[in-house]
Description:
alpha/beta, Metallo-beta-lactamase, Chain A, six-stranded mixed sheet, 24% strand, globular, binds zinc ion
Amino acid sequence: MLRFLGRGSAFHTENNCGFFVKGGELVLMDCPLSAFHRLRHIGIDNLTGGKASGVTVLVTHTHSDHAGGLGMLIHFCFYVLGIPVKVIAPSEELAGNIEYLVSRLDGCDRRAYTIVTPDKADLGFTAQPIATTHADTLEGRCFGWAVDTGEGRFVYTGDTNTLEPFLHTLQSGDTLYTEASAYDSPVHMYIDRLAPIIDGLREKGVKVFLMHLDDEKALADFAAKHGAELAGLYE
Ligand SMILES: [Zn+2]
Ligand SMILES: [Zn+2]
């Protein structure tokens, strides 16, 4: 359902970024700077299959491997492509934080973008933020998304140290994109904790993809053992 411009964790050269296309618009799940560079290289119009009408970004949280390319994307879409960027913030607080980042710090032209919460956005699909826990320094400001594109429903965890907030939203036929970490830490979804959850979801009929990978080889082995797959890269 999603393809990825990168599926690496924070210190990889291609940070995690899923996308889909809806009604001539490119919809990004976060926007790290590496995803912007990939978009420059690929061409947004090549992804949308014709002149893109705009770019929408669903933001999960403001760590730089998720939001570090937002300002650059907005500048580029405004000055080069002449198309609007719609940033969808999961909460009013984050909308304010992102406004500060792109307007105050990055000096983006106010005509170039809008930042709204999904209840105020005019989207061609539905998107519901799901609050989760990740890094203490961003407490209360980390989210995943449940998205129904019209063609299917997926849940995207963003960075999280638990799957608890997401599990009740997943039904048979849904797709889960979960972050997965081969190293145990308090901020990410360690595979030993993930294993029984994935097994349960598979039995329930949920398709599972792993993303935000810190060790591709270890996570590929893990995925194969548990009937999951690594997030599919756009080649
Ligand atoms: Zn991250
Ligand atoms: Zn993070």
